[in-house]
Amino acid sequence: MSLVWQADFYRSPLHDADAQVLWELLICDATRSFEYTATCPQSAANSSWLTEQFQLAAGEKMPSLIQVFRPQSLSLIEAAGRNLGINVEPQRQTLALKQWLQEKQYSIAVDKPPPSPLPNNLWGDEWRFASIQAGDVVEMFSDRPIPILSLPESLQPLNLGLASTTAIPGVVIYGGRRSLNLARWIAQARPVELNYIAGAPDGLVLEAGLVDRWVLVTFEDAEVAQAAQVYEQRKQQSKGLHFLLVQPDDSGMTYTGFWLLQSTRE
């Protein structure tokens, strides 16, 4: 079984005897049955120090993957990972690590830019809110010939303990001839969650990557806003689980891209 670490390397509230700022490395696995910490002065906070610490933490069993949620940690951890042949993945869903940081009363907040508009050449013809019963999600999409499919095992309704009748909310985009290009763009952006943001106008914002944010659609229609509120209410009832579906048209015959997503709001 492959070993996956969640890691953070960032300035800590700690100082050494000379009042120098210390950087702290925290590593754990998804269950926190493994935890490792180390600190160094800011002058030593580099990929060489990290490489040595990863070797010390791993012993004889190196991880196959290190997940990193903090953008400021990513480049150094990636460099250390390359030194040891370990893959490094930008990943907001480092729940065990974030819980540990919160217990230590460390900040897990990251600065996020305002959302950018979706490139005009990608937008589909129409879109709508939808829902699928939890018991049907995997069966409906796992065996279909869908070019881009993201059904992470950890997010499958059964593994989240959701009743089969729970409504999983989502958004369906009919992309027409742009359907495949749109789905490829979404996949490359690494979608995390899709949120309704009330405003003037209202909109749907796609959270992607570590800090990227994209405005998928805006609207001022009161009925659509009401449907958006129902969408958010259903997300609360489904433990944040929701989906994004891209298909060429509304025939229901072919699907281009499907993503099972989960809210990560701290």
From TrEMBL:
It holds the Pfam family Tab2-like_C. Residues 4-104 form the RNA-binding protein Tab2-like N-terminal domain. It comes from the Bacteria. Residues 107-262 form the RNA-binding protein Tab2/Atab2 C-terminal domain. This is Tab2/Atab2 family RNA-binding protein.
